[in-house]
Amino acid sequence: MQQSNDKSGAPAPTIVSRLRGSRRWMIDLLVIVVLVGGVHIYRTKDMLVTDEQSSPPLMLQTLAGEPDGLRSIDDRPALIYFFAPWCHVCAASAHNIRQLRLSRKEEDLLIFMVVLDWRNVDEVNEFVARHELNVPVLLGTPKTARDWGVSVFPTYYIVNSQQRITRRDYGYTTFAGLWLRSVFAD
Q1: 3-state secondary structure of 47
Q2: C-alpha atoms less than 13 angstroms from C-alpha of 79 in its C-beta half-sphere
Q3: Is 98:127 a contact under the CB 8 Å cutoff?
Q4: DSSP for 53-101?
Q5: Is the peptide bond before 57 cis (omega within 30 degrees of 0)?
Q6: What is the pLDDT of residues 40-82, one digit of tens each?
Q7: What is the reported pTM?
């Protein structure tokens, strides 16, 4: 006869049944980790590597029609943030970019937002105004996307003062995540 630990008469779980439940939970967790890791590897396969690879050239027009971007004379780290005006995750991240600019001096960190997959300048201007962006927004091209390995939005790179890629990622990133990555750029 089995003993019961509660008033309902249900048998108390045995050690074996607890281990089986834990094992199932661990297998489920492992499957999730493998799937998420596989998706991450697949989505970053076209991105530039962070093994101190030199960044591609980045000289594009601003919304005002002026040339701007990374120059060989720039001797400070930079965040290059690629976005699309229709991207909801990009819209959610825009506040974090604005906050990063407020927290880091331009003398310490360049920040560029590069718009890709846009229809017209009005669409980009509307996005900039709606999110009160306080960083230069550059008008990217399909060649820019290929050169920088951008296939999802948002995608960002951190480039050190020698214009070598030190960090990269895609998707939503918090202000704290951007700030920490930019502080350790050099």
Answers
A1: coil
A2: 33
A3: no
A4: PBPPPEEEEETTS-EEEE-TT--S-EEEEEE-TT-HHHHHHHHHHHHHH
A5: no
A6: 666 666 666 666 667 888 899 999 999 898 876 678 899 999 9
A7: 0.75
